[in-house]
Protein 1
Amino acid sequence: MRRRSVGQQVVDFVTFPVRALALHGHEDRFGLTSLPSERFDYVSRHVLGYCLDVGCGRQNRFVLEFLDGNGKGIDVYPYEGLTEENLVEDMTHFPFPCETFRSVTFIANLNHIPRSARDAELAEAYRVLVPGGNIIVTMGRPLVEILVHKLVAFYDRRLHTDFDVDGERGMDDQEDYYVTRDEIVQRLTAAGFRDIARQSFRTQWCLNQLFVGWKPRAEPAANV
Ligand SMILES: C[S@@+](CC[C@H](N)C(=O)[O-])C[C@H]1O[C@@H](n2cnc3c(N)ncnc32)[C@H](O)[C@@H]1O
């Protein structure tokens, strides 16, 4: 399981502007942590056990590298490194029984879920979680998400990099650059999650953040 040391976090904090300009790919370089590795590191610290990573992206990296394979990654597009097992065409129905996972993650992808499907996917996350399980959602600050999407598209066009996984897939009209904090809290609450808390990514100068919500444990039956 990969975890950044405190020393690495200090280096990452100091070098954030450089990393924000140069490290959008998955590889860590020059002793610095890439932005994807960094968000995986933050999220992994909240995962309770067997985990479903929704919108896992290329190589199913979060589950394989950051959770030692203890989970499933699913996505709508056959990215490099994914198999049939990872592909789910209709994400409004997850192919798993109720109460299968202890955590469900939506990492940098809620904005890429078509608006009309967001509530249905979060309801599926709730269904497949055990009572007492948690959901973890990451989303950058709005202005940052706009800048990052534009920067990555510019690099891919001009420098022939291939950072933009969503460009590779082809985006839907109902996707957005970002989802606001209010929308995340409102949709998580509507799906049934409670005690929603927010954590900023300090080593990204608090420009990125994650939200953790909880599926309540079953209420004890009332005495009659
Ligand atoms: C910015 S990428 C993030 C990938 C990965 N989670 C990461 O953090 O590197 C957004 C991901 O959302 C996925 N996605 C697109 N439509 C989706 C949907 N309806 N439900 C879940 N994920 C979806 C994309 O295929 C893509 O892998």
Protein 2
Amino acid sequence: MPQLRQTWDNQQFFSGSDDPAIATTIEQLQADIAELETSCAIFGGLIETADNLPAADIPDLISKVKHVHGQEVSILERLGNVRTFISSILSVDSQDAQANTWMPKLQQVGAALSQAGTPLDVFLVRASDGFITQLLAEPELEERSFSISHARRLKDQLLSVSEEKLITGLGVTGLQGWGNLYDDLAGSLKCEVEGETVGLAKAANLVSSANRDTRQAAWTAIRSAWSTREDSVASILNAINGWRLEETAQRSHIRELHYLDKSCHQSRIERETLNALMDTTYEHRAIGQRALKAMGQALEIKQMAPWDLFAPAPSAGGEENIPFDDAIQLIAKAFSRLTPAMGEFAVMMAEKGWIDGAPTPNRTTGAYCTSFRSPREPRIFLTYEGTMNNVMTLAHELGHAWHNWVMRDLPMMKTWYSMTLAETASIFAETLVRDALLQEAKDPAQQLEIAWQNADSAAVFLLNIPARFEFEKRLVEARKDGYVIADKLKPMMAGSWQHWYEDSLSEYDDLFWASKLHFSIASLGFYNYPYLFGYLFSLGIYAQQEKYGAAFNDLYTNLLRDTGSMTAEAVVMQHLKQDIRQPQFWQESLLIVDDSVKQFEQLVAQQKAVAIA
Ligand SMILES: [Zn+2]
């Protein structure tokens, strides 16, 4: 059997960040983008008459769009590859000097590409329905059908071609620069944990130590590291949110836009769906609070503190150490229960060197799944140190990778799914692993260890994620009135935690706005509720396994394959015949969470009874 690898191998693309082929590729891309710009420019002159084109011009215009499409696909594939390559280097070593110089260059190239295509994009939004129907009847353009129809929903907030280009162009050094600054800080900050100097990624893993003192020390160290930079992060948050608000104001020329409109459009959900999701979850916040309480009982802690939120199950008996290879095998076995192909896929990811988990000194925090575009190959990044949390993160990212993998034969533009649906496959994969482990557990102590993960998820998704959403809403509202200083951000975060956690925590993490990178992602706001959506949504789908039996895997695969070409509402209606704008859909998923928390509470009570006897 081939060896499993814990360091990724991307040498087939470039030999390293100093490979001269990177410069050549980027120069070629720039030349091709200049050509694309010429091909698209003609559409700029047609915007005013786009909804009433002379019939005689239509065949020629369609063939021009086809030409542009071919150019774009080729550019996107090559740009995607070099971008994935460079960011993969920076994840492993945030201080790589070459990669750090390429990153802003690539952002510029990305912006140039989007600027070049702007005249056509605006034209396609303004064109008549009749023209669009004729255009999409062309087989090679069919892959654009969803992206075009979805973009056309923004008709009333579109600006002129030159204004659209200006926003994109200024965003490179303006908006994106702030996001880059955050990544820089996160990669270079050092913390002192119990006498040892460690990077943030390592410290973040120590917060899930079995030893409460270590957890508290790591949590405190992360906080004090970030507190030395709190004014910088406050600047980042103010700049990013100020930018977004100004853009929203500029786009509100026909109707008043809400700051959540853009996020919902990007997430491909309706506001009604978001409201149903958040309101229903708030009504059921006690489920997450109960989970925390039971976790505290199991840990023999009177009241959970923020540093206990990542604590491992108490029965683990000290520090766990699950070797990487064992984690892959364990995950593969669980995946195989759905379909052997998914299990084989997990092993293949490690055999091919498509996963990077080995700790390195200047590693960035977090975990993610990305992919190369040509050939279509997923990659996973995480910091694997053998804890059960690490195993679940690996399972989560492998779920994303599987999602990419089942779509690998689709045309590229049909594989771009939204954030809400992105978290479906990952959380589904986590659930598969947890359920398999729970069934295999030999005694109540082992069961409790696995059920712990269910309780932990309930607490994270039903409380922590919504608290982030609440904070971001409050931040945007406050930013409307002016600059929000760090001393205002702290009570704002504490209040958001209070709103959801209530008395289930002994204190709130009021620097979470600095330590959590999600608030500083320049390219998208509200990167929080999609996790809650994915969690409840994937549990809802998971529960359909019994109902559909042997037919389930096909249903699930087809649903995943449609995630790139439908709104979330349409995907669910099409495959599950349910309406996610209604609270009922979410209530059913919350009942599943409630059951798993009840099971956990029983296991904890049982353990206590044994201890007393
Ligand atoms: Zn994910």
